[in-house]
Structure formats: structure tokens, C-alpha cells
Amino acid sequence: MRRFPVSFSGKAIVAGHSSDGDSEFDEAVEKIHERGARQLRAGRLTRLSDRIAGGPRRPGEQKVTRSPVLLTMLLVSTGLAIVAAVFWILVLRETEKTRFENALRALDEAKYNEAVTQFEEFLLVHPSGEYSNRARILLHTAKIRRYTDASTFSVESVVAAERSLEEFFRHCQDLPEFADERERLIRWAEKIARAAAEVAVKTASQEALNASQSAYARLDSLTGSGGLSAEARDRILKLHSRASAEILKKDLLKSSLGDIQRLLDDSRPLDALRIYQGLLDRYEVLREDRGYADVMERILETEQSLVHVDETPRDAVTSEADEHPRPALSLNLRTAASSGLVSQDTLVFGSGGDAVFALDAETGMPVWKRPLGVSVDTAPILVEGRVPAVLLVHGGRHELMLVSQADQTLLWRQSVESAVTGPPIVIDQDIYVTTAAGQLWQIAAGSGRSVARVQFSQPVTGPPALSRDGESLVIPGRQAFVYTLERRSLKCRAVSWSQHRDGSVVSPMLAMGHLFLLCENRSEDCLLRALEMDEHGRLSERERQTVLGRVMDPCLLRGEQLFVPSTPQRIAAFRISDRADNDVFSLIDTNQVENAELSKIFLVSGASGHLWMASTALRRFEVTEQTVVLDKAVVAEGQHLYPIQADDDDLLVTTRQPWSSSVFFTRVNRETMTGQWRTALRTNLVAAAPSASGNSLVAVSDFGEVFRVPLSDIAEGGFHTRSLSRFRLPDDLNDPVEGTVLSDGRLAAWCYGDDARIWTTRPTGQFEQLWRLPAEPQARPAPFAGGLAVPLPGRIRLTAVRNRVEDYQVEEPGEADVHWRFVVPVGQEQLLAVRSDGQVIRLEYRTSPTRHLAEIGIARLPGDIELIPAATQELICVATSDGRLVLLGADGLERIQERSVDGGIVGGPFVSGNRVFVIAADDRVCVYSLDERLEETGVFASPGGRLTDAPLPLPDGGFLAVFQGGSVVHLDEQGQPTGRTDHLGQPLQSGPIRTGDAAVVVAEDGSLFLWNDLAEGQDE
Predict the structure, then answer these.
(1) In the predicted model, is pLDDT for residue 1 greater than 50?
(2) Checking DSSP bridges between strand 718-720 and strand 329-331, what pairing results, if any?
(3) Which of 626, 696, 616 is nearest to 656 (CA)?
């Protein structure tokens, strides 16, 4: 071990040994250990002090820390350090201020990039200095202003500006100085929002638009409800709309506009419009886009080029079509309030739908009748000329006819080739009428010569409106367009885009001074749009008004008052002005019928502010300057079918009841609101049979009147205006009245509803009895066992018989939705009751031990049955929904034979003699033998419609077949046409009805036609 010498009192001491003795040595060592311990406890500062003091003091030496020289030096050094620190702090503060001022000077001199750099360096060196908060705000100010103070903008610059604005908020909004920046932030946000929007418009950039919208949102949060003018806001929002349009045009519209142009090149403007309208519905901003408006101009130009005028003249025909080889007797019940009515030899004219009548104006007696083929919605129109005439529309032949008012002599008839779609109008001896083929015809009233016709690309809603100067006709298309035509040449002056939707315009346009009224229906209301015409014939909307309900019928203009009828049974009255400095529409008042229903509405005005409305009755309103008041008086109740006609102090109206197809023509005194007379123009017969004597026909109408008409009168033709008896219908009747002929010759009529009942009439024509029913029948009753088998819920009742018969009741009714479908008589004593689940219950009428209907078997029909089967004593013919004609045995419903009918069966089966007749879906009449072979014996095309009933067997073995379209055809014994066909010129309802050796056919309007001497197979 090495030994370290230690100086102690001038002597050398070796550790572990002492030259002067052990005690002294030990004392020295102990002192050394004590000092070492003190030094260790003092730490680094103690050791540093010791070093400064020169280390451990030797014994006898002076302590260094008490040296005056050293203390003086320390004091001087400390003072110098403090002075140095003060100077250092002052220098640092001066440097921070200088740097801040330099950066601020760069900002003030608009050296924004330099200012940004200097502020960033300043904050790096002085992140928490005196100027740090202000420096941060000015840094972001410089970042924003280097974009906002630029003279031009790009997508990149506006996007960067908006980001800088958001960074300002993110980094500075918590600083105390941020509140002082609000006004400047508003200016910057507004400028960025506007500049970015302008860039978005120019470049169609979605990025720029997003930046603008973000800046606008920030602007909105800064200003709230104030701080920015409405004009400034609108300017920015309009720029947003324009920018959206440009972006849309750039992206989506590029392909869509290409499709539109291709369709226009193919002359398909309506198809192009659908694309155009679809884009407009989706993107509202396109409405103000000029480029998109140019596309509409191309569509309008193309549409106008497709409006063709054919000026090829065509002379009218002056000879009758000779469609009426047989006289007809018309049943026209007439009732009058007074028996003292005296004819003044003046006529009024009414339409029963498929025929027009001339009636004595004072008495209501029919004078002449002219069938019009199928039912039409157009009333007769009086035409003054060399011969007072009536303009008629023949629905069967699609003709306009002019006949003499006095005796219906034909003056001319002109084909318009398709169905008339609006009432004709007469302007300066020219007739204008629209058709289903999308045409407008111009016909000379005097000669019937076709002058011109316009072909549109779509159906139009007529009649046209005449401009105030009389030079233009205005007519709306089914959708989108309104056409302006030159009245005399019919050349198209202009096509206007009215933007109405497909089928929304039903009421014809109305001229209101210099304006035109277009009524555009929406789901719950209607827009009344006042359109103004410019010098080129183009129409534009000047003002619009909304009315509740849909406008389906013509509006009425009386002076400056406009009356608008809307559903249900509502009238809105307006004061109208076409002056440029006035509002077009000024509402006077509205009024609605109590418990209003959907119905047609026709208006006519009169003196003293009175207005009459025909809808579900004839009602009168009193119109003042501020009110529209409904009178309590009600007359001519029923659904009104045609416009009101005014005749002196009276009004003429045409009505039918909801439960009836019969039509009545009524003369009403407009002041007293009382009926003068009423005449049936159409009589729906629900049952007809020979009288007890066989020389008359007894017929029951659906309005409760019973007629007995001699066959001789039918052969002669003319009018029958009196009934023999009547029965009263329920007051609250809503369902149609139906009827049939019972096996004993009586006639039965019935009604459905809660107050279901049956009326029977004797073969003499006298009303017999009312039979009430406990519930509403579930299916059509059928003649059976001298009475009427009625299918009621859960039971079959035999009623209209002298002695009571117990009902057949279903033992297990089964599911609630199972009901009776048909009841089919099989001979005189058996009945098939067919249920909706296909089950067939065979019933038999028995008198022992009591009169009742006994169940004798249950079976199922072969397939789904929609048409009522036909039966004889031994056989049943069934037509299935899948097109099979099945022959079954009556006893057990066993299948005997079946035949497939191509296309399916839509009419029949009808059993007559030894033949079965069915109507195929393609209007073929198929005839089969009624035996086990069910062999097809005849087939021919229907001359129009289906069979009205089973063909009548003739003595020569042939048949007389009646078709709904108006033809009566003679068939041979195989069921093939013989070539003898009568075209009666009007729809037929029932028949032939055998009356001895004659047969009667009933037309839909109740007219009767007679075939005499059927035994010889010839007609007189």
C-alpha cells in the first residue's frame, strides 16, 4: 500500500505511524476526517468557495476569504457584472423594438412577403416579448393583404386568401388585441368572398366557390344581422348562383346540352325540353343563366319550325250519311210546373250526350232529334247566317255538322279526322276547333269548306283565345308551350315557354284586354298567370295569383270582373286591370258551397251583380264591390253536364243524377229560381219486356218511371213523353239503379246501399210492390223460380214472390273476405251460387216441407272466373280468365269439353239455341256448337263493340245479333254473318227483345227500334 505524506506542524507523518507518539498522530487524522466530511456536505458551491479561498487553510495561515484584496476584487467584479447585465438588457430591448419596427415598416410599405418573413423571424427570436401578440396579428395581416390588395385574382390566390383568413382566426382569436381587428376582418372577408365568387364565375372552379362560400360564412358570423348591407349580401349570393351555374355547365351540362342538341337536330323539342326542365328543377340557379336561356331559344325555334299549316282547301259534304235506315222512338219524359204553357214557335237546343234535341222553348216538348254517334262533351252552338243554324259535333264520325234550327236539315258536314277536344268557337264566320290529333281546324261557317289546319307537335287545349286586336289566336299545348297564331292564315307567329307541366292546363285560355289568362293546376291549388304579348307575339308572365283548388272549367270575364271556378265548388272573384301601372289581380272575395263536391262548374253572369253557378245544382251569387254572397235558393239538382244557356229571363241547364245515366234538360227562371219544365233527353232503361197483351213494350227507367209503348208507335218513330207509373227512389241514393225481367214477365229494378230495395212492375206496366232487403246485395240478383235470387252476406234470398221462401244460409261463412260472385239459374228450379274462393253451391227451390232453397251439392269451377257463366237445363258454359271456354254438366259440374280462345275472352258466354257466342280480346266473335264437341262453327270480326245480349234465334234457324257500337247483324244457323247489317248510328244498350213476331232493340239513350215479321227473315 502506498503512503501519502501529510504536512502537520512542520513534521512529516506517515499514515499509520507517528514519530511523536500515537496520540498526536490520532488527533491529526481526526481533524483531516472532519474537514473532509464538511467539504462533502458543502456540495459544489462549498468546493468552489474552497477553491477560491485557496483550499484548506494550513495551521497558522490567514483565511483567504477574509483577505481585503480579494473582497475588493469580488465587489468590483459583482458591480461590473450588474452594470453589464443592465446594459445587456437595454441592448436586447432596443434590438426587439428595432426588429418589430422594421417588420411593421415593410407591412406599411405593402412589402407583404418581406413583412411576413421579418415577422416570422421576430417571433422566432422573441416568442414571448413585449411585441409578440401584436407581431402575430400583423404577421397574419400581411399574409391576408398580400392577396386581398392584389389587382387580379386567380383560383390559387383566392383559395390562399381564404386559408390565410382562417389561419388568422385560428392563431389570433384568443389574443386580447383580436377584438380590435373586427372591422378589418369584415372588410377582408367580404373582399375574399366577392373576389373568390367572381373567380369561380369566370373559371367555373368549385375550389374558388368553396373559398367564397367559406369566407361568406365567416363574414356572416362576424356581421350577424348587421354590419353588411343587404345589397352587398345579395351581390355575393348572386355571384354564388352564377358560379354554381357555370360549374354545373362545365361538368354536368356538357353532356346534357349535347343530348339536347342531338334531340333538336332530330326535331324532338319536347324530348329536349324534358332534359332541360329536369336540370332546371334540380338546379334553380340555371333560371338566371343567360347561356342556358339561349338553349331554350333554340328549343322554341325548333318547336316553332314544327308547327305546320296545311292550307289545302276541302269542300264540305252536303248529303246525309244515311246511317238511320230505321225510325226510332225516343223516350223523353216531360214534366211542367204549369199546364198552361203555350208554344211561341221558338226553339232551344240541348244535348243528351249522344244526341242533340230541338225543343219548344216555352213547353219543353221535343221537336226534332239528331243522333251524334258516341257521347260528346260539346253542346250545340247557334250560328247566325243566311239560315239560322246549329253547329254540332258528331262523335261517331268525327265531323262538324251545320243543320237548320227549324227542322235539322243538313247544310253541310266536314270531317276533322279525329275526336274534337274542345268546344268550337265562331269568329267572323270562321269556325275554329281543336282535335285529339293535335290539330286546329279553320272552317268557313257558311260553306263548311276547310280553309286551313295547323298541326302541332303535341295536343293543345282549345278553344283558342282571340287577341284584343283580333289578329292573333293564342292556344296552350298540353305541356310547356303556348302558341301564337295569325288568325287568318293560322301561321305560327311565336312559341312561348310558359313552363306549365304536362296536363296541368285544362281550362281554355282567356283574353283579358291586352293580357291572357293561363290557369296552371298544381296538386292543391292553381296558379292564375297573366301573360303579356310583345310585338313579336311572344308571351311573358306579368303577374301571378294563387287560388285554392284546381281550375278545370272555363273562367268568366264580365267587364273588369274575373270569376274563377275551382274545385270543389268554389268561386274566386277578382277585379282585373291590364294597365301597366296597376296590379292585374285584385281579390274581391271567395265563396264555396257548403258540403262541396267534385263536379263540373259552369258560370253565367247577369244584371244587378248576379252570378249563376251550375255544378251539383243551379245556384245564384250576388257580387258586390267587396263580397260574393251565395243565395239559399237551389234548383235543378244533379250533376251539370254542359254550359248554362241564357234565354231571356230564363236559364237552360243539363243535368243527371250521380246514380243515373239519364239526362234532363230544364228551363229555370233566373229570378225566382224555379223550374218551368223538365224534359229527359236521355233515358236509361234498366229493364224492358213485352206487355201482357204482346202489342206493347213495357220499360223501366233508372229514375223510377215506367213506360208502356205500343209497337206501332215504335215502328213510326218520334217522341214518347209520358210515363204510365212510377216508383220513388231513396233520397240518399248514390249507387246505380239496375234491373231485369223475371221469368213470369214482371220487371224488377233494384238499388244498392244501406237502404237496398227492389221494385216490381206488372207486365201491364203498373207498379206492383216495393221489396226491402236487410242488407246490400254482394252480386247482381238473377231471375229464378218466378222471383229474384239475391246474394246477401252469408245467405241467398229468393224475393219478389207471393209466398215467403226461407233463405239459404251458409253454415260456415269462412273467411270474412269471401263473398258471392254470381248467382246463375239452371233451368226453373236449380241455382248455382258462385263464391269468390271458387266454390260453387248448387241450390234447389223446394216447396216441402216449407218453401226454401235447399243445398244439393258443392263443387268448384275449373279456374278463375270473371264473366258470368251461361246455363241451360243440362249444360253450363264457363269462360275462364286464361282464355278457355269450358262446357260443364249441370248436374255435377263435371267437365265435358273445353276450347282455348286465342287472346282470351272479354265478352260472354251467351247461349242462344244450339250455339254459344263469346267475344275474343281482338274483337272477334267466336261461335261454338252447344254439344259435347263444342266445335267452332263461326268466327267473324265484331262490327263495333260487344254483344248486348244473347243473339235472338230466328224461325229460319239464323240469329239476330245486336252490338254495342250500333250495328244489328243477321247471322245464319252456323253463326256467320249473312251480309244483312243495319247500322243505327248510335250506341245500343240491350236487345233484341222478342215481342211476338217482332223484336225491339234499345239504344243507350232509351230510343227504341223495331224489327217486324221476323218469321220471314225480312224487315219492314
Answers:
(1) no
(2) parallel
(3) 616
Averaged confidence pLDDT in the chain: 87
CA 218 vs. chain centroid, Å, equals: 43
- Burial (CB count within 10 angstroms: exposed 0-12, middle 13-18, buried 19+), residue 974: middle
Q: What is the 3-state secondary structure (H, E, C) of 461-478?
A: CCCCEECCCCCEEEEEEC
For 87, 88, 95, 98, 118, the CA distances from 91, given in Å and listed in that order, are 6, 5, 6, 11, 19
Q: Using one digit for the tens of pLDDT, what is the confidence trace for 631-680? A: 999 999 999 999 999 988 899 999 999 889 999 999 999 999 999 999 99
Characterise 1000 by phi-psi region: left (phi > 0), alpha (psi -120 to 50), beta (else). Answer: beta
Quick one: cell of 778? 254482394
CA 119 to CA 131: how far, in whole Å? 10
Residue by residue, DSSP assigns 256-273 as HHHHHHHHHHTT-HHHHH
Tell me the three cell numbers of residue 949: 245480349
Under a CB-based contact definition with an 8 Å cutoff, are residues 638 and 656 in contact? yes
Q: How buried is residue 884: exposed, middle or buried, by Cβ count under 10 Å (0-12/13-18/19+)?
A: middle
| Helical spans, DSSP H, in 527-596 | none
- Tens of pLDDT, residues 851-871: 999 999 898 888 888 899 999
Neighbours of 448 (CB within 10 A): 22
Spatial separation of the C-alpha atoms in residues 184 and 168, rounded to whole Å: 12
What is the rounded distance in angstroms from the CA atom of residue 464 to the CA atom of residue 461? 8
What's the first-to-final CA gap in the chain, in angstroms? 168
SS3 234: helix
- What residue type is 615 in one-letter code? S
In this structure, are residues 391 and 408 in contact, taking their beta carbons and an 8 Å threshold?
A: no
DSSP 33: H
Q: How confident is the model at residue 436 (pLDDT cuts 50, 70, 90)?
A: very high
The residue whose grid cell reads 227542322 is 407
Q: Nearest-CA neighbor of 599 among 666, 552, 652?
A: 552
- Per-residue DSSP letters for 949-1011? SPPEE-TTS-EEEEBTTSEEEEE-TTS-EEEEEEE-SS-EEEEEEEETTEEEEEETTS-EEEE
- What's the grid cell of residue 137? 396579428
SS (H, E, C) 857-922: EEEECCCCECCCCEECCCEEEEEECCCEEEEEECCCCCEEEEEECCCCEEEEEEEECCEEEEEECC
Q: How many CB atoms lie within 10 A of CB 523?
A: 5
Question: Is residue 107 within 8 Å of 142, Cβ to Cβ?
Answer: yes
Mean pLDDT of 427-442: 95
For the chain, what's the residue count? 1020
Strand, helix or coil at 451?
strand
- Cell numbers found for residue 358: 230541338
Of residues 218 and 83, more confidence is placed in: 218
Which of the given ranges, 131-140, 269-278, 445-454, has the highest pLDDT on average? 445-454
The answer to whether the CB of 431 falls within 8 A of the CB of 442 is yes
Please state, in angstroms and rounded to a whole number, the distance separating the CA atoms of residues 383 and 390: 6
* Spatial distance between the Cα atoms of 270 and 479, rounded to a whole number of angstroms: 9
Confidence of residue 81 (pLDDT cuts 50, 70, 90): low
pTM for the model:
0.76
Q: Element (H or E) spanning 202, and its range? A: helix 182-203
Distant-in-sequence, close-in-space partners of 843: CB < 8 Å, separation ≥ 6: 796, 808, 830, 831, 832, 833, 853, 854, 855, 856
User: In 3-state terms, what secondary structure has residue 58?
Assistant: coil
Structure confidence by residue, pLDDT tens digits, 44-62: 444 544 554 455 555 555 5
928, 912 in Cβ contact below 8 A? no
